Amino acid sequence: MRQQQRDAGLITRFMRDLSQRQSELLFLISAFLARYQPPDLHAPIDDDVADATGSLAATFETASRGLIYDHRPASVPAGRLVTELKAVLAEAAQGAGSAFERDAAVVLRRVEDAARDVRTVDQDNRRALLDLLRRVMQQEPGPSTVDVPQERSRLIVP
User: Fold this and answer.
1) Quick check: is 143 in a domain?
2) What's the CA angle centered on 41, arms 10 and 128, to 5 degrees?
């Protein structure tokens, strides 16, 4: 119970002052990080997440100013994470307009800060943020007690 309360408090703190679009991006990135499986045996740690999101945020910040420069993370696991995360964000950016780069940069900086802040709560766990995201983002299938009526199609066929 304490773990759930602590998790809820941390997630609430991470989401403070975000717009609707930014909250959706945070959810998208969090879901990606919660299910991320690296292509090799080197599982990322929170420092890799902070490095990856920080370099990707810098890339988006530079792009929002009209410059194209690809900032690179320092570690190999963070580099792999950036590659995967870029693909997820590129898909989300389709049709989103120019404000997407600024929103993505804000959210990525928030994730970078969260990766560092969570370590203050759980100093011995090098995967504290990733563990938090897995706990919060898990979806337990359960029996549905509410029947949702199916809406009929509004398409008119001659």
Assistant:
1) no
2) 15
For residues 121 and 10, the answer to whether their CB atoms sit within 8 Å is: yes
Q: Is residue 120 part of a domain?
A: yes
pTM greater than the 0.85 cutoff: no
Please check whether residue 153 lies inside any domain of the structure. no
Residue 151 lies in a domain: no
How many structural domains does the chain have? 1
Task: Express each pLDDT in 99-158 by its tens digit.
Answer: 899 999 999 999 999 999 888 877 889 999 999 999 988 755 444 443 444 445 455 555
Dist. CA 147–CA 119, nearest whole Å: 42
In terms of residue numbers, what domain contains 75?
2-137
Q: Among residues 138, 142, 157, which one has the least CA distance to residue 31?
A: 138
Q: Is 68:105 a contact under the CB 8 Å cutoff?
A: no
d(CA 125, CA 115) in angstroms, rounded, equals: 11
